[in-house]
Please model this.
Amino acid sequence: MRVMAQIAMVMNLDKCIGCHTCSVTCKQTWTNRQGMEYVWFNNVETRPGLGYPRRWSDQDRWRGGWELTKRGRLKLRQGGRVRKLAEIFANPVLPEIKDYYEPWTYDYKDLTEAPLGDDYPVAQPRSLISGEPMAIEWSANWDDSLGGGPELLGDDPVVRKLRDEVGARVRLDFEQSFMFYLPRICEHCLNPGCVAACPSGAIYKRVEDGIVLVDQDRCRGWRQCVTGCPYKKVYFNHKTGKAEKCTFCYPRVEVGLPTVCSETCVGRLRYLGVMLYDADKVAEAAAVRDDKALYEAQLGIFLDPADPEVRRAAERDGISHEWLEAARRSPVDALIRTYKVALPLHPEFRTLPMVWYIPPLSPVVEAVSASGHDGEAAGNLFGAIDALRIPLEYLAELFTAGDVLPVRAALDKLAAMRSFMRDVNLGRVPDTSVPAAVGMEPEAVEAMYRLLAIAKYEERYVIPTAAVADARSLEESALAEGCSLDYDGGPGMTGPFGDDSGRASLPLVTIENFHAARRRQTADREEDA
Amino acid sequence: MDTFLWGALPYVVFGVLVTGLAWRYRYDQFGWTTRSSESYESRILNIASPMFHYGILFVLLGHLMGLFVPSSWTDALGLDEHAYNLLSLFAGTAAGALAVVGIGMLIYRRRRYAPVFRATTRNDKLMYAVLVAAIVLGLVAKLTHAGIETGYDYRDTIAPWARSLFTLDPKVGLMADAPVAFQVHAVVGMVLFALLPFTRLVHMFSAPVQYLFRPYIVYRSRDPHDLATRPDRRGWERIGQR
Ligand code: SF4
Ligand code: SF4
Model:
């Protein structure tokens, strides 16, 4: 066993209202630069829908992720190492910017400088890529909320697959369709295709927290990673000629703050926390034969942070106490491992993604309510989950490579929670057979409810400040020479025999820094600081 | 003049190449990239770029063979002068033609597609001019001095000169007597070498052969000294500001 830690995310899709706040704040933070105009590290797509870039999950076309060779070994779907080097001069399956969308701005000057005339001046759209006037035909969100209707949405790879392989027709008319939003960021996979595809070795997975980053100094612009990532979450900066990707807001996470998308999420549906996993088993789990077994296989490599043996091994492998504690309190761990309501996105790509999703129950609830029944009664819901084959199969294609069982189990638990908690909240005697039907204790249901419905900031984001140790030493060295302890009147200076009567034993670094910093900022002269 | 061109210039070029590369490696890691334009246009690029690159790689191979493998070695392998001439004529011309057609298409594409043209710097234009000149002049030199029966045997003149550069005893006379076309090609070629470190062509020095040998997944530890934002290093050009 080799224990490694990973900061992971879970999103509760029931709560996403598709407001795109996360995308916008992410863009403001990371990709509001030339060369990255078309890039959204975080994007929210409507399902069913084409996604961004269009039809990204169709790996017959984009050849991302891994596949198994006949002998059962993992190989990049794009081809082996030699083939990839042979194709390095032109990557035959690189998406063009137009496959995302052509970014544009408006020629606003026209509005103010057009000569006086009868016609109202308009701001012409201009391409940010070519600089020419352009017609706007697509964007990162063209099919938002089922925009574009049946013709367009029929191209959704999952809809097609269901039609061609399962023979199920997804209704795409507005009245009869189901719909939900799927916010996507980089999955910070355990077996990342982007890392494996990078010829220069510039993309790496951080040992400490599993965040996958591109070393901008080492990237040489071979753009193989763009293809290697099945989620199309590495982007080519066309100005700098380097690859860029979601950073999991590592500068924030390092100091214990949630990512920008989580922090600003209007639905408060994102959870951040530590997962422990056995690094020795990663390759094995990614190479199980059956696509449908991948979800279970990935579950199997996660380690229980409460298990004493795991804790010993983790300490041996250099995982600090703070991280272990965080892992024990991790909301993500609870949703993935304990309650098993969170599922991975497209496990069949075999990258072992680490941003998981709680499938939305709302299409089911809506369908039940729309048919005039009580959308929160356990019986109605359980029945409907079974009866609403198509949403269920659609979700299964997204989250479990088509295996309906885990999705149904997760939805059943959510349904049970809904009806059980309604009784609790209405002061009725809750029906304990409802949790039992989904194999849960009533206490567990209530705990899950707390986590999903009312968890506060500190419960949703349990992020160990890994960097604290080195950050503190850096902070200290960044301070001006000499601190307030060194002169009379400073804190801790109540005389040689007062209070602690010494300086060495005062572990007041942070507080001292705060005061010292304020003093430095407000002092008029250097000596005052 | 001959001494300068064939005795001094090669060393100057070599010096510029090496110091240029070292300097760029030290100060412009961020600018060291292919600056691919594939995301703007990929249809033509998918044909033209492999054509050019494979062509130019074979041309390079041919040059290495012609210049640095003495004829006595190939003779020993049973490849006599006539056979060598044919090989060099046909294989060399084919590779050269491949490269020329490829770069022709690339340049057409660069001019024709607005986004690609907009991403073309002055540096690129200069580079293209010298690169095309070097390739075309090489083909011209070859084809004007070759026949099926016999061709100009540069392996008795130019090649020994090239090798003598490495023993720090340049045989200037040999090159001075070579046909003018070859001389011009050699000079333009040297200019190209001197330009390499300062253009996007540097990407050739980071050909990622190590990819064949490393494990698929790269792990790296956080550098405790890199916790904060590091100060901007100087780069080739400012990014993100118009
Ligand atoms: S989702 Fe992220 S970590 Fe996984 S392959 Fe894509 S870019 Fe790499
Ligand atoms: S901010 Fe939250 S609710 Fe809004 S789109 Fe993003 S994930 Fe959904």
